[in-house]
Amino acid sequence: MLNGLNHLTLAVSDLFRSVNFYQITLGMRLHARWDSGAYLSTGGLWLCLSLDPNRTNAPGADYTHYAFTAEASSFADFVSTMRAAGVDEWKDNRSEGASFYFLDPDGHKLEAHVGDLASRLSACRDQPYAGMQFFD
């Protein structure tokens, strides 16, 4: 039986650049690095960066993305820091809770989000998506 997300592995084209982005720009903790990868963490998330010479930095055309929890009290500062670092934004926020959608150096779609599943469901109960059903 599954009981949670274990880790994320992201294919990267330039390991040094990606480690710097996740460690320095996003503030994740670097635990290990080797010739073709690195392990970092933030909160309870274990992130693996894996060097892949076939990876391009073009973002995918679909909505697949990885969202990190952001603290409401420091969200505006986070967004300012990301914009000052020159990260590319890929979407404007149109849903419940403050969100900042940005790309990593390899075009992975990322999000910093203030809120959780409970706050999202509460907002959806007030304004449900088309065809939305709730299962309590």
TrEMBL record:
Keywords, comma-separated and alphabetical: Metal-binding
Domain VOC: 4-115
Pfam families recorded: Glyoxalase
GO MF, one example: metal ion binding
Regions that span the bilayer: none
CDD domains for the chain: FosA
PANTHER family: FOSFOMYCIN RESISTANCE PROTEIN FOSX, LYASE, PUTATIVE-RELATED-RELATED
Name of the protein described by the UniProt record: Fosfomycin resistance protein FosA
Organism of origin: Collimonas arenae
